[in-house]
Amino acid sequence: MGKINRKKMFTENQIQELNEAFKEASPIDIIKKAFELNTKALVTTNFRPYEAAILHAVNSVEAKVPVVWCDTGYNTPQTYKHAEQVIKDLDLNVFLYVPKQTSSHRDVVMGIPSIDAPEHALFTEQVKLEPFRRAMEEHKPNVWFTNLRQGQTAFRNSIGIFSLSNDGVLKVSPFYYWSDEKLDRYLEENNLPNEFKYFDPTKALENRECGLHA
């Protein structure tokens, strides 16, 4: 029943109206509007570059909002160090989700398959999709904050600030139209760290969709 109720929350026309109304709005105003629409929200992160911006912005509007971190188990030492710093500095309410199999075990059984290998779909399911579904099923959000931005992938170019996930959750990307340069200034103005030594084992190319958002 939960999924059906979420699907009734917003129509495609309402989403289009929101995108038109908030195209020039600040991230903070976008986030405030999302919380006005529904307070059962969470923000997802993988602590890739520029993630501190969305975490700071959402947390500044609603402290202690659940932050879902789906850790593939293959992050770089720099990413883990960066994550710990951001979590501590922003006092984030983090819920950690990891694959059911350790990366060491999977290295023996499968390794990290190339995107063309038959095992790649199973690998992506194990390290990214299953933990994410588990998180969403446990939290059952109506609003999902992300740091998706225009220009990252062909799919992300089409969604706008507000969009609907496949199961009807309102997906909100407050920095959707922001460039790296503009985000650099945001991080600097708010004394936030950034880290570029990030590794996604499911993606061979930076502009390849990971599977969570398509």
UniProtKB/TrEMBL annotation:
Residue intervals of the Phosphoadenosine phosphosulphate reductase domain: 51-193
SUPFAM superfamilies listed in its UniProt record: Adenine nucleotide alpha hydrolases-like
Signal peptide: none
UniProt cross-references to InterPro entries, sorted A to Z: PAPS_reduct_dom (IPR002500), Rossmann-like_a/b/a_fold (IPR014729)
Listed pathway(s): Sulfur metabolism; hydrogen sulfide biosynthesis; sulfite from sulfate
One Pfam family this sequence matches: PAPS_reduct
Source domain of life: Bacteria
PANTHER family tied to this protein: PHOSPHOADENOSINE PHOSPHOSULFATE REDUCTASE (PTHR46509:SF1)
Similarity field: Belongs to the PAPS reductase family. CysH subfamily.
Protein name: Phosphoadenosine phosphosulfate reductase family protein
Organism: Flavivirga amylovorans
Taxonomic classification: Bacteria, Pseudomonadati, Bacteroidota, Flavobacteriia, Flavobacteriales
